[in-house]
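Example record for the data management plan.
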Amino acid sequence: MVSDRLLTPSKITAWLECGHYLSLRNQVDRGELSVSVPFGSFAQLVLDKGSAHEEACLADYRSRGYSVFEVPGHLSGEPFGEWVARVGDPLADGHDVVFQMPFVNDGIRGIADFLVRVDLPGGRFGYEPVDSKLARTDAKVGHVLQLCFYAEAVQALGWPAPADVHLWLGSGSRVSFPTQRVMPYWERLRGQLARLLDADHDEATEPLRCSHCEFCEFAAHCEQQWRREDSLQLVAGFRVSDIEKFHDHGIDSVESLATAGERVPGVPSARVKRLAAQARLQVEARALGDDATPPFELIRPEEDPTWGHGLEQLPAPDAGDVFLDFEGHPMWRADTGLFFLFGFIAQDDSGGWSYTQMWAHDRTEEAERTRELVQLIANRRAAYPAMHVYHYNHTERSSLERLTADHGVAEALLAGLVESGCFVDLYPVVRNSVQVGVESYGLKYVERLAGFVRSDDIHGGSGAVVDYDAWTRDHDKDRLGRIAVYNEDDVRATKALRDWLVDQRGDGLAWRHAVLDVAESPEGFDDTVAALKAHDVGTTEWFLGDVLGYWLRERRATNGPRIARLHGDGDDLFDDGEFITALEHVGKVERTRSSGKPILPVMRFRFPEQEVDPKLGTATRKVMYPLPDGGFAYGSLTSVDHDAKTVDVLWNEKAKEHGVLPTSVVIDDFYEPGEKVTVINDLVHAVLDPAAHGEPSRVALALLRREPPRFTAGHGPSGGTFDDDVDRIAGLVRHLDHSYLAVQGPPGTGKTYTGSHIIAGLLAAGLRVGICAFSHSAIDNLLEATIGLIAGNGGALPPIARRGKKPPAPLDGVDYPASNAKAADPKYRIVAGTTWCFASVAMRANPVDVLLIDEAGQMSLVDALATTAATRSMVLLGDPLQLAQVAKASHPNGSGASVLEHVLDGDDTVPADRGVFLHETRRMHPDIAAFISERVYDGRLTSHSSCSVQRTASGTGLRWLRAEHSGRSTESPEEAALIHREVARLIGQEWTNQHGESASLTPGDVMVVAPYNRQVQLLQHTLDSDPHTRGVAVGTVDKFQGREAAVVFFSMTASDTTDIPRGSAFLFSQNRLNVAISRARCLAYLVCTDQLLDSRARDTDELQLIANLCAFVSKSAGAPPEH
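Corresponding structural encoding:
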């Protein structure tokens, strides 16, 4: 019998976020649990807007003349299965759109919003599901999984499997997902979901705090259970991921934690100590009652430069201080949200603290209020140099940064204010100065320390949203008045808390500097952006307004979060290779030159076992470390001994002046753009006023506008489409007309081979060539191939300059000039260098004819634009689907994309009429290439016939090694042991290469890839400890790009996604999976746990990434025999 419980997006999404949800849902369905939750006004608002959006979508179909069939409705009391049977199969009638189609399939039920007819070859037709969702920009995982269910249900009725599934978002945009990209994830989760939806079956689950709690109808039920059990989750700052560790140690309640010692296996003792103190205060607060001021303890400062030093982050109060809070409506319109109120208090002329409310009732007003607010703050700081803007938590500052970027107003002005320390977030001040007997450190809890009493009658921010939404319909001014009172309470509570914190400071404690050192923002930046943004949306000028702020945003996003993390919990840094934490001072080490002359000493520190980037220590690196006042200092890391676990920090006069022994350091890898800024500014001025500044670079405009490649008359590709014949490509490039050609080269397709032939062809035609890439190693790789090609053909090498430090193994026939001016000398027919070289005055004065940018998928658009003044035309050689360009900031409207991503404009592979796609790999056996082609390259990648010859005695293709472990994060001995056993089994077996030559597999024919450096080190040690497997290459994907092996292993390492560094996007990265698996010629192994494959995706991007792993396992030939 089919039950009436529906599979809905809310249930799927709830289950994905909370494993306990469906267990409780089943108890309700069985009558074992009763939950009565009033349908709140905010929930009703969401429901109403969702229904309105669905009706708008239906009306749109009808307005376009589609024939729409509305399925007869579900009758009152009618079992769902009988409704399905009564409806039958209306698809057979051939309607354009079928609305509200019910399905039952494989024990799961659902109602499709729309099924839309699609025409198929041979006069056939089929249907693809379309669901309307209120989400504005990002579809939810539950929505996509429901679409997968509808796709299967359509196929179960006997119709062709839908090629795509679609969401019609609240913004009006439609997002499509190729079914094969998402279906493997659904197929794996479907079995779990079906079991959990079975009312007669409950899996053992426990309620754990998660992001779904605030929306869940069971929130009160779980809260009661936590209080009944005195759950550790009630302790402020307690991590759900640590529960099992504490329980195993006999600590399972707040009271037991309050009396705990400092040792819990697997948890740093400092964290245990802090949590125990927090629990003691909360137990004490219970005895005092809810109305009492909560007990607190000031944290005693110790060696940690952050914990206990929160009060040192406070600047001195000033008459010009401002206390700020925003109110916003996330669903103001289907396509956008709105910050509708900017509220603050500031001291007026009479000495009173008056409240100012700045309202914005549309996007234009939002932009204007943003500009006015930033200018007001800047003016006030000019009048009161020691003033600050106080807020609680980062939302106000980060939202204001996003608003300035989105609207193109006052971005540089705000950046200068933020970086100079004008904004003071009181949240980290509180967290690092005082422990309070409260269950949350939200403002409404900690304001009780200051005795603040609220006057508003709006319950939380969602109440303000509901009231504002109602105001948009009835314009009742009382609603705005209530919102203003709520907002004013927030800003006055922030001031009360600041004043209380000031009162806790001891005598003699220094104030934080009023103004922090800051790099100057470009002069006139905001005015230039405003001029660009005055043009119509989508124009070259308008887009340049976004591009112009790239380096400003990158600098802010690179250093800002790192500095914040330095001032956070040091325990969070152990698994991030950019940081070295828990440093213990060893002592000063005096140094001398070989001549005996003294040089600056270093301070040596010891560090415990942690994830450390192996590249650290290979050269002197600039680092940052925290200062007690909330600021930071720069230092130089001169060496890292990974074996002895020591680091040396240059101890110069500045370090002595700070007088701080760092306990954590982080890499500072932001490189100032230098002359590249000049090139971009010149381009902007030429675009805005060509009469005054000259015509802008035509190749720059071609890139910005994504123009199709342009050739001199009569020299374009035959039929207007490109193929990957290398001679034809080289011939075409010679005739580029101030334009560019994109050449996308998937793994093993001969990208470097193609690039070298293009360069040789250009030289033969008498043209001057440039080679540019993001790194010297990439430049040298292409340069070496070009030299080898010319020499192999018996040609004479032209004069070649490679700008930069001479490498340990210099290339024969290459000069390494020490300046851009020398490299730009016209005598050089090949000039190779980074973007700084090609943006230089010297290269602009002596440009090349064609600049070939290698690894263009890893170079930002703005960096590529910075080279355009030094070339007539350009070749973009690369593949954005392998290692991608890394942008730290969020850049508006695609302005942070790599240059190759930008010109592809959303396509995974370059269309045949817009560039070259190298379609044939000469590396991967078809059994491997087919997987990479389907999952990554739109099915366009094929194998050369020679690849089919390759084989091993254990076969070819994909293999999954199922690992069994739990609690692993960056290191898994179990996976290391699995890989060792399998490598040992393979070595000595016969294998045949692409030339048909057979030999025994050796350690040199095997490659092992892992995502984390600690796993790399463990694997290397494990394999090298056995003479039979010693010599196997082990590394991260970054090490192996461009390399290959007969057999490749990819160790995923982490047991699940509970506690992984760098986030799941890093671990599941399609780019990294692509690089790892595509190194293999014959066999590719994936090593991971079932739990990892069962991970619950948090967004649709992650869904597709996990689907790649699921697809690999489903296509795998299975694990090898037991050893």
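Summary line stored alongside the record: Residues 1119-1123 have pLDDT under 50 and may be disordered.
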